[in-house]
Write a structure and sequence with these properties.
Helices cover about 40% and strands about 20% of the residues. It has helices spanning about 1-10, 25-35, 40-45, 110-125, 150-160, 220-230, 240-255, 255-260, 265-275, 280-285, 320-330, 355-370, 405-410, 420-440, 445-459, and strands at about 45-50, 55-60, 70-75, 95, 100, 135-140, 165-175, 185-195, 195-205, 290-295, 305-315, 335-340, 375-380, 395-405, 420. A hairpin with a 3-residue loop joins strand 1 and strand 2. The radius of gyration is 23 Å and the shape is globular.
């Protein structure tokens, strides 16, 4: 826990503009990690990619086996100036108190960086040697798209001719009382991810003195457009990944839910309506958008000549940049509001099959670490992670964060008083120990997992 607390003290805030990363913070964290994990750095090959990202290679004994890659990121989101006084402990102090590790990055995503490295450190000290090569890939700009970090790591691996067996990245988690109707903990593995798109809305006006305001100022016009978008959301759709999720959960809930899902064609409308009523499940069936940045005006008695808003859109499987733009333009229906794409567009990901030995190995590691979990369920991850950059290296991409989240704790990500319990962090280390052994262990272990899956299918 103290190693994570120390890592939090480095203010590795992701820069919006490429090339503007805080070199002192990132390089300081690099050195800190080297000092904190001496056995790992003695055994694994370290490569700095694009100045600030890290790639560690632990060569396996059998070079014919495809490597496994564990992905996490070093960067964190900034702390809003207006919220600094609301933090119980300063966000970059790395305080351990009241059973928690406090600070920016405790939940997203330095805890996974440190947990992975601690698991490897322990394995090295035990004399463990993986059968297949293991990569630890830590990007430095995941929060702004990951192009300069994970994107460059992926390009480097591709240039080396590397094809991966699987990628394990951040994502969904063990959900405790989050899904309506299910009280026991359920582990959700992200086998697909929504796409990501930012839209810039701009309204121009004539300005002037606020004592004689025009009837429709840029702020009024922009606010009306955002309000229309809020009141006219995207239509819900059942994707293949969510269909699988809901069918498995229906068996857990039982009763009428199991019957309805077995006759989904008859009850499609009612099922979708039910899912859209809850915040947790609405994200599984709908493209969603949220205004995240609003700007207008510089003086209290001057009418602004310009008002802008950034909308962050998380795109459901089956939708595209074009369909999103069409919906936004049709809903706003106002020529005064200019709509343009801002930054890079990430399409929705392919769906990873659950009928693989690597999925089984991940489920095994979850079960060993969180025995209270009653089911492991594939699901759509509503966010976007560095894993998208590795899609050209493998079809097997899994998004799972080894922590237990409630509705309340889930709100701490990117928020005031971000913190992770010491107990959960300890389990994170145990989880990666199990995952490495399950995926990089002996060939006999892999064969046993394959045979177990074959027997289950026969049953």
């Amino acid at each position: 826990m103290h190693k994570l607390a120390g890592a939090i003290t480095y203010q590795t805030v992701s820069a919006v503009a490429p090339g503007n990363a805080d070199a002192r913070a990132f390089l300081g964290l690099h050195q800190y990690l080297e000092d904190a994990f001496p056995a790992l750095h003695n055994q694994l090959q370290k490569k700095v990619v694009n100045k600030y990202s890290l790639l560690y290679t632990w060569p396996g004994k059998d070079h014919t086996l495809k490597p496994v890659l564990l992905s996490a990121h070093l960067d964190v989101v900034p702390v809003e100036e207006a919220t600094k006084d609301e933090w119980q402990h300063q966000p970059f102090k790395g305080i351990v108190q009241d059973g928690y590790i406090w600070g920016r990055g405790a939940m997203d995503d330095k805890y996974r960086v440190v947990a992975m490295m601690e698991a490897v450190e322990q394995l090295v000290l035990e004399g463990y040697q993986p059968e297949r090569t293991l990569y630890l890939a830590f990007g430095h700009d995941e929060e702004t798209g990951g192009k300069s970090g994970a994107g460059e790591i992926a390009a480097y691996l591709q240039a080396q001719g590397v094809q991966l067996e699987a990628v394990f990245d951040e994502g969904l988690a063990v959900a405790d009382k989050i899904v309506p109707g299910i009280a026991e903990p359920i582990a959700f593995i992200g086998t697909a991810a929504k796409g990501n798109l930012n839209l810039l809305l701009t309204v121009k006006g004539e300005g002037g003195h606020s004592s004689v305001p025009p009837k429709d100022s840029p702020i009024f016009t922009l606010s009306a457009a955002i309000n229309r978008l809020h009141n006219h959301p995207f239509e819900p759709h059942m994707t293949p990944a969510t269909r699988e999720t809901v069918e498995l959960l229906a068996d857990k809930i039982g009763g009428k839910y199991r019957f309805v899902m077995r006759h989904y064609g008859l009850f499609k409308g009612r099922v979708l309506k039910k899912l859209t009523r809850d915040q947790a499940t609405d994200a599984l069936v709908r493209t969603q958008m949220a205004p995240t940045i609003l700007e207008a005006g510089q003086k209290e008695n001057v009418m602004p000549r310009l008002a802008t808003a950034v909308l962050n859109v998380r795109i459901l499987t089956g939708e595209t940049q074009q369909t999103v733009l069409a919906h936004v333009l049709k809903t706003i229906d106002d020529e005064r509001v200019q709509v343009e794409v801002s930054g890079l567009y990430t399409p929705p990901s392919p769906v990873t099959s659950t009928d693989t030995w690597t999925y089984k190995a991940l489920a095994h590691a979850i079960g060993e670490t969180f025995p209270e979990v009653t089911a492991v369920v594939p699901a759509l991850f509503p966010g976007s992670t560095d894993s998208k950059h590795y899609s050209g290296l493998t079809d097997n991409i899994y998004r799972f964060a080894p922590q237990v989240v409630t509705r309340q704790s889930a709100k701490l990500v990117h928020n005031v008083n971000e913190r992770l319990s010491v107990e959960v962090f300890g389990k994170c280390i145990v989880f990666y120990n199990h995952l490495i052994r399950s995926t990089c262990g002996s060939v006999a272990n892999e064969v046993a997992i394959r045979q177990e899956k074959a027997l289950q299918r026969e049953e």
